[in-house]
Design goal:
By secondary structure, the protein is mainly α. It folds into 2 domains: 91 residues, Rna Polymerase Sigma Factor, Chain: A; 65 residues, Winged helix-like DNA-binding domain superfamily/Winged helix DNA-binding domain (Arc Repressor Mutant, subunit A), CATH 1.10.10.10. The chain contains 8 helices and no strands. Helix 2 runs antiparallel to helix 3, helix 6 packs antiparallel against helix 7 and helix 7 crosses helix 8. The protein is elongated and about 75 Å long.
Length: 190
Amino acid sequence: MPFEAPAAPRVPPTFSTERDRDAQLTRRAATGDRRALDEVMRRVLPRIRAVAQRMTRDAAEADDATQVAVLELWQHLATFNGQGSLLGWAKVLAWRRIARHLVHTRRCGTRERELPDDAIDANDTADALLCRLELERLLRDTPVAQRHALVLHHGLGWSLDEVAHATGTVANTVKSRMRLALAELRARPE
């Protein structure tokens, strides 16, 4: 007669792990539970602010970036599935949104800068416009990844690591893309 183990009693699933509790908490927050949302924000807001501060290196810009990232997090709460930590998920989401925010603000120049009245010269403005048009013409046929690496590093002054994070690559790939783009630009006839 074969041995049969007794059937284990059926126990309803419980949220025993922190990830399960985080997933439950974010589901409640996504459905409008104010206390759950407050708890999520209490836990992730300091981390998001720290990410923003490291990325911007400016308190006012970090505040703006934090607001943008928190809004993005709030809109995507329902996508957290508990496969990783809530803090890790929030940091990645915040980092990606802050990077997009920084690219936009640096590209569009939405941050206000005060200039002295005598800093603007009509000739300088015209020269800058001509330079920009020439640069756009030169970069038009450059592959997108190479163009992004050049513009972010040389145009906006980002470090190689910052460009690598923003483009989802590593610093050596950024260097390679810039080298290829510069070689192609040098080889072009005027």
